[in-house]
């Protein structure tokens, strides 16, 4: 079994035309076609279109008003035996 992935455009007539050379002659083959329309998007999605609440980023970015955050010492880590 061979798999071929293509991107094609369906014409104004609503018909998809495929010409796929497979290198086989004079044999029966079973064909399966699965199609998925692609989203053609010229404008990037807004945060709301991506599922974020309106005003979320405006509230969160720069919202920390407490002491400056500092990363604590991470300490030592154990040395493990190699797996292989």
Question: Overview of this structure, please?
Answer:
It contains 1 helix and no strands. By secondary structure, it is mostly loops. The longest helix has 5 residues. The chain has a domain of 28 residues. The mean pLDDT is 86. The protein is 6% helix and 0% strand.
In short:
The chain has 84 residues and is low in regular secondary structure. The chain has one helix and no strands.
Which terms would index this structure?
about 80 residues, little secondary structure, single chain
Radius of gyration: 28 Å
Shape: flat
Order of helices and strands: H
The low-pLDDT segments are none
Strands, helices and their partners?
Blueprint: H1 56-60
């Amino acid at each position: 079994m061979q798999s071929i992935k293509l991107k094609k455009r369906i014409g104004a007539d609503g018909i998809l035309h495929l010409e796929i050379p497979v290198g086989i002659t004079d044999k029966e083959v079973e064909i399966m076609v699965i199609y998925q329309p692609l989203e053609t998007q010229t404008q990037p999605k807004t945060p709301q279109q991506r599922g974020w609440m309106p005003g979320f980023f405006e509230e969160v970015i720069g919202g920390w008003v407490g002491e400056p955050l500092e990363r604590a010492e991470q300490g030592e880590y154990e040395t493990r035996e190699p797996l292989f």
